[in-house]
């Protein structure tokens, strides 16, 4: 099957000029024709929007790169020149892609010839140099669906070859149309796209599953971390509690050892405290109860210890004072009271231990014992601060003794009245 030979595209030369109304830019395209009319040059004037519509129509078939230049106002010649070079590169890429794809050239080359005004007037119904409308994307899509079905439509095979002026040329030949080959290629492309879509869906599902597993792993890790922290805190608390108990037991053993040593030293220096003829040793009652208002019997300085030298007994008295302070801090007020009295009996001319013993008696709510100790301390040499504190403590002990006396009288009166009522009944 033979058809009329179409002109060959030898060169595409870009140029630009402003339109008559100055509202937009028109690009001149000088297209030199082939061997039949080597001197004939067709000039086509195209606007930016026409280039863009051509790109939208050809890009799905030729897999062209994105449109080279964005739409914007051009207010100087440099920008227009840059736009011209970019559009020229788009035309060169389009011709190259059409020459490398024989199947696509069936539909692409007629559009290019129409865009360059190289089709005959009987085909385009417009003289060369005018701007025939380029089909939009919807129209080109419908044309792409209907055109390969025509068995008699020509196929133009394009190839790029350097011309005499080192530009590219496109030679157009004719051969029989092969719609089945194009349909098979499109079917293969659709199948490949379907496989890619399936692979993409599988990848997305795998990514979603991986994200869910990672979230579950993070939640499990957070729970395990909380459990580990709780176990560590419990272990630390148990260790600290055991350490405190061990320290308290060690302190108790040390106090017991010191008391044993003190007892041994006292046995070496003096006879037992129970053997003193003048002052009896008063032990603290098991339950701290207010004593009656009568003079107490206190372990005041012992005759057997008062004759000893202060230099010999001073270290022992200081050790007893330390143990008494520890007993008071631990809550054993009665033990501290007896230890302070014992320390004072070793150093009777020093009032510190005697004042501490009086404070312990006041703390035990034994105001009479405290008054006796404070009055004895006032007979010893005191500093001004110690004397002032002793007087204030004496007043406090007297108030406490008065309160206890009133309470005892009220209790006795209530008991007597209760007995009288019981006798009446």
TrEMBL record:
Compositional bias per record (Pro residues), positions renumbered to this chain: 287-299
Annotated region (Disordered), positions in chain: 128-176, 271-306
Ranges where the PX domain occurs: 5-123
Biased composition (Polar residues): 164-176
Any one GO molecular function term: phosphatidylinositol binding
Coiled coil location: 193-227
Cross-referenced Gene3D superfamilies: Phox-like domain (3.30.1520.10)
Family matches, as InterPro entries: PX_dom, PX_dom_sf
Keywords from the UniProt entry: Coiled coil
Signal peptide: none
Domain of life: Eukaryota
PROSITE patterns found in the cross-reference section: PX (PS50195)
Protein name as catalogued: PX domain-containing protein
Source lineage: Eukaryota, Haptista, Haptophyta, Prymnesiophyceae, Prymnesiales
